[in-house]
Amino acid sequence: MKFPGRRKIKHYFPVNADNRFDRESTTFGHVNTYICGIDQNMVDIYAHVDDSALADFGLTKAASQWVDIDTANRLYEFLQESGAIDNQYAGGTIGNTLHNYSILADDRSVQFGVMSQNIRVGDYAYGYLCNTSSKVDMTFLQPVEGAIGRCYTLITPDGERTFGINPGSMNDLSQAFIPEHVITGSSALVLCAYTLGDDSLPIYHATRKAAKIARENGIPVVLTLGTSMLVEKIREPLKQFIRDHVTLVAMNEEEAQALTGETDPLLACEAILDLADMLLLTAGPEGLYLCGHTETSMARETDNPIRSAGISDFNRYEFSRPLRRADCDEPMKIYSHISPYMGGPEKIRNTNGAGDGALSAVIHDIAANHFHREVLPTSGKHERPWLTYSSFSQVCKYANRVSYEVLAQSSPRLSRALPEREDSLEESYWER
């Protein structure tokens, strides 16, 4: 496992002298640690066109609209023939998260979804693969005859952007392409509420099957909420899905409000902790919140300034580590907040994917905990079935730093690991 900051090998996983592992039976690096996830595989296609092209394809300027498959195919042929395509980026919130995890951890992740069976050099499916880390295992993708999802961003000479979206076959993922052994061997299963929006689609049932397998085998289930409009549309069934299956739920402040009705992000967090064991809430320029549960008798007080908002002294125990609520004898709700790293980038190049980046950092810490528990099961770090290796406060710092990195670049996908050393990630990061 690769960890943030410059570290000596012996300090990757600090253990007490009386908790040394059996060197005859256990060695570092033998554990196959990975995460997996389901996505609606989609490509973002950027092109410069004239207003006449929008009229020719029946697109309303400056609007976001669905286009049928025939229009999507004709538009792509036109853009290719005219040389108008600038870039073709891999998209999808789970695809972004898996890619970013593999960049941060320098380790494997497994992606479930569909992919065009016939791929030509230079086409959209080829662009998707080229923009995805080689550490993302795509051997379990379901081959389809048609196109994967395509989102066209058409930029006219006045700088206005027009969006045309076609789902293609991205929702055709069959339950047969959800291998149980891959999920049960993983450190976490990552899902998105987008796939739960329509129970008539095959991907809906594939998602529920995967979640059921993970929950029955004690694998943490991570769910991102998509958009506030989607949350409002499926609020009650979504809440039930979270209660039944989800360990960690991730969202922004608008989605949190749509789910709970609370306008105060902290109060929304409090309400969501009645549904899930843990949550990540990104609140734009306010920073991010990481909240969850811990055992009351094992709560650790912070040495950071105590803060109050909708909840008094809400961060008092942010040096605690998260547990599933069911694993607590006397559960306590824990809240941690951090403002944007260095006040945020001087120039924000892209807001798309910042939440996915933050989530990938949290999942990396969950996977690191799983790795360490498998390698050193007798370590004092595992006297309880903790969800993460680090405290709420420390995971906040890591997530915040990764989010900053995404905001400072033009793509929602990290192109490199974090710098060797960051002052925000002090030497005790993995010891808190």
From TrEMBL:
MF annotations from Gene Ontology: ATP binding; guanosine kinase activity; inosine kinase activity
Q: Which SUPFAM superfamilies match?
A: Ribokinase-like
Q: Which cofactor does it need?
A: Mg(2+)
One Gene Ontology term from the biological process aspect of the record: GMP salvage
Alphabetically list the UniProt keywords.
Answer: ATP-binding, Kinase, Magnesium, Nucleotide-binding, Purine salvage, Transferase
Where GMP is bound, by residue?
G92, T93, I94, G95, N96
Q: Which reaction does it catalyse?
A: inosine + ATP = IMP + ADP + H(+); guanosine + ATP = GMP + ADP + H(+)
- Domain annotation Carbohydrate kinase PfkB: ranges: 133-296
Keyword set includes Amino-acid biosynthesis: no
- Name of a matching Pfam family: PfkB
EC numbers, comma separated: 2.7.1.73
Q: Which family does it belong to?
A: Belongs to the carbohydrate kinase PfkB family.
What this chain does, per the entry, is described as: Catalyzes the phosphorylation of guanosine and inosine to GMP and IMP, respectively.
Protein known as? Guanosine-inosine kinase
Which species is this UniProt entry from? Endozoicomonas montiporae
